[in-house]
């Protein structure tokens, strides 16, 4: 069955190319994104007034989608600030510093811990938990904040989420679309996830170490701004709390987060519910520590810490909202904002483009594998990773039927490509949790991830060809 493409599809592709070009040359993408939203609106509706209004409504849509992440990051930053000023942060991380003695150890320990936690509770809550505790220890031994963000991002939103071996949301979606048992897709994904993860994380570490040796990066040079409390830059003078209280809180706070993890597992909390639990716990910790540290001024100070956190969160997210607003038009935002302007049977701009690509290529194992990687990557451009994996499963089913083999491998390959690109290693607004916690620019993190992830996808695709 063919796919009907319209002018709006062409406008979307053109502006994707322009945005990528602007990113490569380190130019601000906001004007291009806003122009793209305007022209997509014109191509879709033909109405100038509706298109101009669409700029504003698309920004509101992006804000609505990103707001939970903005809030939890803001609260975590506020909590980290009061923990730093009270001296609890230093006391809490002191045992970890015995293990983290070098930049290399920091990179691999943080990454592996992030991967394991993310398998059970998904990466977004894990970023808040791990970043707030382990980032200061990593910076102290010389790993730049961008290195911590890379480790958390690649191991969490890359390896853990692309395999999703425990929660199994991703393989369930792709397996259902491909008409396969979930277990077979998980089994087929294991070698691909291992290859992709090994190549990408090893290359990312090699590039980091090379830049450190050449002086391109310094331990604090990659910080976008001093993250209150996390970087320790706000620590001035003596700690606000005495030693005994600091030690007590240093034990209780990790136990509270451990209780969160237990609750997530017991009540099967995932995604937004898990993030909300982490955010609520962080808010309570902020309030209690502020009251203990400032006593009679505790209520006012707790508000100040929250305001500082919100200021930081919105400052970090501000540049990302316009580009997110543009890319959301490739999926569910377009019909919601501009009405049913796409042809009957359309699955959204991004999915239509993926299907069109699948229909253009000849059916051979090598070409099929490359196409599944491309389809997965294209559908990941909306920054979700999950919105397009059903399409990847459907395309894999078509290709494997023609080839007579390789259904499981092709399905797993499309899943890996979609989630590594869209789930949070290349698309800037999907990188925000790790970038914000570490105080780095999400666009800088995306650029640093780009080469390792692309090489990893190429190697993984070659491996998949031999497995088909």
TrEMBL record:
Q: Which domain of life is it from?
A: Bacteria
Q: Which UniProt keywords apply?
A: Membrane, Transmembrane, Transmembrane helix
The answer, when asked if Transmembrane helix is one of the entry's keywords, is: yes
* Bilayer-spanning residue ranges: 6-25, 32-60, 66-85, 105-121, 127-143, 150-170, 182-208, 249-268, 274-293, 305-329, 417-438, 450-467
- The yes or no answer to whether the keyword Transmembrane is present is yes
Query: What is this protein's name?
Result: Transporter
What is the organism of origin for this protein?
Answer: Paenibacillus lutrae
């Amino acid at each position: 069955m063919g796919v009907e493409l319209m002018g709006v599809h062409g406008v979307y592709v053109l502006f994707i190319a322009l945005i990528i070009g602007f990113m490569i040359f380190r130019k601000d993408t906001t004007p291009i994104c806003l122009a793209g939203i305007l022209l997509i609106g014109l191509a879709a509706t033909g109405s100038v007034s509706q298109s101009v209004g669409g700029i504003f409504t698309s920004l509101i849509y992006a804000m609505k989608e990103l707001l939970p992440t903005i809030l939890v990051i803001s609260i975590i930053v506020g909590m980290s600030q009061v923990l730093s000023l009270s001296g609890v942060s230093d006391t809490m991380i002191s045992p970890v510093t015995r293990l983290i003695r070098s930049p290399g150890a920091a990179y691999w320990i943080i990454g592996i811990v992030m991967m394991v936690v993310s398998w059970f509770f998904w990466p977004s809550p894990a970023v808040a938990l791990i970043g707030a505790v382990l980032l200061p220890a990593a910076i102290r031994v010389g790993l730049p904040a961008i290195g911590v963000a890379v480790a958390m991002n690649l191991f969490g939103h890359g390896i853990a989420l692309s395999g999703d071996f425990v929660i199994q949301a991703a393989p369930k979606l792709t397996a259902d679309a491909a008409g396969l048992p979930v277990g077979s897709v998980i089994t087929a994904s294991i070698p691909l996830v291992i290859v992709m993860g090994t190549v990408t994380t090893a290359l990312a570490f090699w590039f980091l170490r090379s830049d450190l040796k050449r002086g391109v990066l310094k331990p604090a040079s990659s910080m976008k701004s001093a993250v209150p409390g996390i970087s320790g830059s706000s620590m001035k003078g003596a700690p606000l709390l005495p030693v005994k209280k600091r030690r007590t809180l240093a034990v209780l706070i990790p136990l509270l987060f451990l209780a969160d993890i237990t609750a997530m597992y017991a009540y099967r909390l995932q995604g937004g519910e898990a993030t909300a639990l982490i955010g609520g716990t962080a808010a309570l910790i902020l309030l209690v520590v502020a009251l203990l540290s400032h006593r009679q001024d505790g209520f006012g100070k707790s508000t100040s810490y929250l305001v500082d956190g919100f200021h930081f969160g919105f400052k970090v997210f501000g540049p990302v909202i316009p580009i997110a607003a543009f890319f959301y038009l490739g999926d569910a935002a377009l019909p919601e904002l501009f009405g049913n302007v796409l042809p009957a049977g359309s699955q959204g701009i991004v999915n239509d483009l993926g299907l069109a690509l699948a229909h253009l290529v000849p059916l051979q194992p090598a070409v099929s594998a490359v196409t599944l990687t491309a389809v997965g990557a294209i559908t990941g451009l909306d920054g979700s990773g999950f919105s397009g994996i059903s399409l990847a499963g459907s395309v894999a089913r078509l290709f494997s039927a023609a080839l007579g083999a390789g259904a499981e491998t092709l399905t797993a390959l499309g899943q890996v490509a979609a989630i590594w690109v869209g789930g949070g290693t290349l698309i800037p607004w999907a990188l925000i949790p790790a970038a914000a916690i570490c105080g780095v620019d999400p666009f800088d993190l995306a650029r640093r991830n780009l080469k390792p992830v692309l090489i990893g996808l190429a190697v993984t695709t070659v491996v998949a060809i031999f497995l088909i």
